[in-house]
C-alpha cells in the first residue's frame, strides 16, 4: 500500500492479482453462499420477532466472514456469534482514522511503528495484523482448505521466489482483512438506505428479479445477479452517491512535475483524487448530481458517465479487491430485494456516519419483513 513508485507497484500487484480475478473468486462461490445464508437466518429471526436490526453491524459481520471464506477458507465467526469478536469491528474505527493519516504521510508510520509497537497492540494496525496472521496460521493447518486466494498467493511465492517474499503474502493478507470488509458493508448500507427512500426503485428491482425466472436458490448466483440490469444500475448509483472510500491512495507527481490543464503540480507533490468531489460534480453528472437516480445508468449518456465513475479508484493503483466487492454486492443485494422488505424505525431520521479512510454509516435501525415467495 505504501509503494508509490508506479513500476514497483505494478510488479507487486501482478504477483497478487491471480487470486483476486473473478474466475478464481467464483470457484469458491458456495463458501460465500454459506455466509449469506447465515446472515439471512439473522434477518429471519428479526422478522419473526419484529425487533429492529442494525444493518451496519450485520453487514460488517457478513463482509468480514466472506473475506475469511474467500481468502482463508474459514469464516471469522462474526455471524455465528452475532457479535464483534475480539473488538475487531470497533478496532476498524481507529484503524480507519489511522490509515486516513498514514496513507498520505507514511513517514508518520515509519516514525512510530516498530515490532515492539505492533506486538504491544497499541497501534490499531496491530490488531488487524494479529487477526490476519492468526487466519494465515489456521489456514496452513487446515487440511480441508479450498483453492482459496491464499493458495494462489502461496503458489505465486513458490513459483517466483525471486519476485515476491513471504512478507508480501502476509502484507496482502493483512491489507485484505483491513480493506475488504467495512468498504463493502458501507456499499451494502448505501444501497438499502437509498433504495428504501426510493420505494419505486426497490419495487422495480424486485419486478426485474421476479420476471427473470431465476433458479430457486437461497442465495442468488453471481452470474444471475449480473444480468439484472436495473439492479446493477441501483448498485452503481449507491456507490456513486455514497462512495465507501472517500479518498484514493496517494500518488506522487513525477520528475519534472505534472501539468493538468493550466495547473502545474511540482515534482514530488503528493496528490489524490477524491471520489466524492468527482461524483458530486454537476459539470460531469448534471444538475441532479447529488440525487440517487439509477436511471442515469440506463440512459444514452451512460458510456460518457462511466469515465467519471471511480468508487474503486482508477489506474494502476485502483482497488485490487473490486471483483470480490462486486460479487458480494450483486449476490447479497439481489437476494435481499427478492426476499425482504425494510423499513427504517424512524423514517424521518437521517443516518449518521464517521468519515476516515472509509465512510462508515451507523444509527439507522430498521425493521425487516420476510416476503413470502410462492
Ligand atoms: C465496495 C467496496 C470497495 C470499495 C469502494 C473500495 C475502494 C478502494 C479504493 C478507492 C482504493 C484506493 C484506490 C486508488 O488509490 O486508486 C482501494 C484500495 C484497496 N482495496 Fe478496496 N474497495 C472495496 C473493497 C475491497 C475489498 C473487498 C478488498 C479485499 C480484497 C479490498 C482491498 C483493497 C486493498 C488491499 C487496497 C490497497 C491497494 C494498494 O495497495 O494499492 N477492497 N479500495
UniProtKB/TrEMBL annotation:
Keywords: Heme, Iron, Metal-binding. The keyword Metal-binding applies. GO terms for molecular function: heme binding; iron ion binding; monooxygenase activity; oxidoreductase activity, acting on paired donors, with incorporation or reduction of molecular oxygen. InterPro entries: Cyt_P450, Cyt_P450_E_grp-I, Cyt_P450_sf, Cytochrome_P450_monoxygenase. The keyword Heme applies. Belongs to the cytochrome P450 family. This is Cytochrome P450. It comes from Microdochium trichocladiopsis. The lineage of its organism: Eukaryota, Fungi, Dikarya, Ascomycota, Pezizomycotina.
Amino acid at each position: 500500500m505504501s509503494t508509490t513508485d508506479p513500476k514497483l507497484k505494478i510488479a507487486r500487484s501482478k504477483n497478487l492479482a491471480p487470486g483476486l480475478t473473478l474466475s478464481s473468486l467464483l470457484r469458491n462461490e458456495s463458501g460465500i453462499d454459506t455466509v449469506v445464508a447465515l446472515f439471512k437466518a439473522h434477518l429471519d429471526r428479526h422478522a419473526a420477532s419484529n425487533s429492529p436490526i442494525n444493518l451496519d453491524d450485520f453487514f460488517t459481520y457478513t463482509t468480514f466472514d466472506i473475506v475469511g471464506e474467500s481468502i482463508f477458507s474459514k469464516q471469522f465467526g462474526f455471524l455465528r456469534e452475532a457479535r464483534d469478536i475480539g473488538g475487531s469491528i470497533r478496532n476498524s474505527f481507529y484503524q480507519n482514522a489511522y490509515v486516513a493519516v498514514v496513507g498520505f504521510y507514511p513517514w508518520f508510520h515509519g516514525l512510530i511503528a516498530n515490532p515492539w509497537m505492533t506486538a504491544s497492540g497499541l497501534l490499531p494496525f496491530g490488531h488487524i495484523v494479529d487477526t490476519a496472521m492468526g487466519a494465515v496460521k489456521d489456514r496452513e493447518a487446515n487440511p480441508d482448505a479450498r483453492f482459496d486466494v491464499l493458495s494462489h498467493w502461496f503458489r505465486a511465492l513458490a513459483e517466483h521466489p525471486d519476485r515476491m517474499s513471504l512478507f508480501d503474502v502476509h502484507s496482502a493478507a493483512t491489507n485484505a482483512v483491513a480493506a475488504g470488509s467495512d468498504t463493502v458493508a458501507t456499499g451494502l448500507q448505501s444501497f438499502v438506505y437509498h433504495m428504501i427512500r426510493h420505494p419505486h426503485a426497490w419495487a422495480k428491482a424486485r419486478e426485474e428479479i421476479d420476471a427473470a425466472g431465476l433458479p430457486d436458490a437461497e442465495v442468488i448466483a453471481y452470474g444471475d445477479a449480473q444480468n439484472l440490469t436495473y439492479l446493477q444500475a441501483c448498485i452503481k448509483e449507491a456507490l456513486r452517491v455514497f462512495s465507501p472510500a472517500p479518498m484514493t491512495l496517494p500518488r506522487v507527481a513525477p520528475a519534472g512535475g505534472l501539468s493538468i490543464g493550466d495547473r502545474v503540480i511540482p515534482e514530488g507533490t503528493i496528490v489524490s483524487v477524491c471520489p466524492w468531489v468527482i461524483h458530486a460534480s454537476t459539470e460531469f453528472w448534471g444538475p441532479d448530481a447529488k440525487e440517487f437516480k439509477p436511471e442515469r445508468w440506463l440512459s444514452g449518456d451512460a458510456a460518457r458517465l462511466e469515465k467519471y465513475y471511480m468508487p474503486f479508484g482508477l489506474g494502476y493503483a485502483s482497488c485490487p479487491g473490486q471483483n470480490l466487492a462486486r460479487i458480494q454486492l450483486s449476490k447479497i443485494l439481489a437476494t435481499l430485494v427478492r426476499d425482504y422488505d425494510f423499513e427504517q424505525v424512524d423514517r424521518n431520521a437521517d443516518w449518521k456516519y464517521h468519515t476516515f479512510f472509509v465512510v462508515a454509516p451507523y444509527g439507522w435501525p430498521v425493521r425487516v419483513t420476510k416476503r413470502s415467495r410462492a
